[in-house]
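Class, carefully examine what follows:
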Amino acid sequence: MKTLYLDCFSGISGNMLLGALLHVGLPEEVLRKNLSLLPVHGYDLIVTEVNKCGISAIYVDVKLNDGHDHHDGHDHQRHLSDVFQIIDDSQLSPKIKADSKKIFLLLAQAEAKVHGVGVEEIHFHEVGAVDAIVDIVGTAIGLDYLGIQAIYTSALQVGKGFVKCAHGLMPIPAPATTELLKNIPYYSGETSKELVTPTGAAVIAALSTGHGNMPANFLSKTIGYGAGTWDLEIPNVLRMHVGEIKEESVIAKTFVVEVNIDDLNPQIYPYVMDKLLKMGVFDVWLTPIIMKKNRSATMLSVLVNDSILDQVIALIFEQTSTIGLRYYATERKIAMREMIDVKLPWGKVKVKVSAYEGKICSITPEYEDCKIIADEYKIPLKKVQQTALEIASIIIKGDAIPET
């Protein structure tokens, strides 16, 4: 499984992500060509190689043609619907559009909660400006080009002190950034600068798989550095590892966390399950049960690696009505898994190929990829899935793929 690990010892921002993606193999011409599909004009994309405390890194800047750049505080207000319209009106792939909109939606929700208004009332200010659209969509372009299937991050150094925002001086991390970093480990450090921007935090909140540590079975293949704006006592860079997580068919020790609940609003369960999955648990499921006094209840079960067991337990206590839970060690065997890209007449989807003891046991098109294409082209989801399965089977057998 092709994986990114982001070492955020000096924070993370949109342009740091773009610079790092270019450094690890995203061709600049591919980035520029895809960005040109956006109906956004009046800017220059400046890509330079810089040195931060002895580390060579790529710095990306968006300079507006009116003489302003994205560090001058110039205010370009847009609503969420405006940003979505820009993305939808482009000829970018459905996956890039979906990832970009997911990031912007989390940004809008965070700002709306902080300011106590509706999502569509939010003026994005810096976030909605041309530079942020380029940073966010450019990041989605890079992840899609590199075929990244999972993103893990270290704990984030956010900096300390205060930062000047459109609404005045705000503590670091800024309120919207803090909202986005819920359930993501971070620390202040000794640097009196804003090291994690709302854009950087939103990308992690929207797209990352796990936080805190490099996965134990991660093998780093390529390392790149994206430069931030500041010149600090430490290298102001984001270190990006591109590698593989090998999922061997071996016994893997994990934990099962279980909790019986009979007094929780059913609407909350999907919310909790989504948060657990974003945290990086292996699986989460619900089972209807009967408790004492013949009361109907639900058992929430989570399969989790011990590295995030404490975080999972804390989230369950925080988000549900339970006052107690149980957990126990278990063992599992997993098949070897590989994701392959399959080109359909309507676009590209990922297909998971699983094998146990050297024999293929499952070929599964990724639901979300197929759903995006079905929605985009107004065709039945089952047709997309069946076509992906047929072409993937041909690829695996090594046969020629018929013209479509």
The first helix runs from residue 14 to 23.
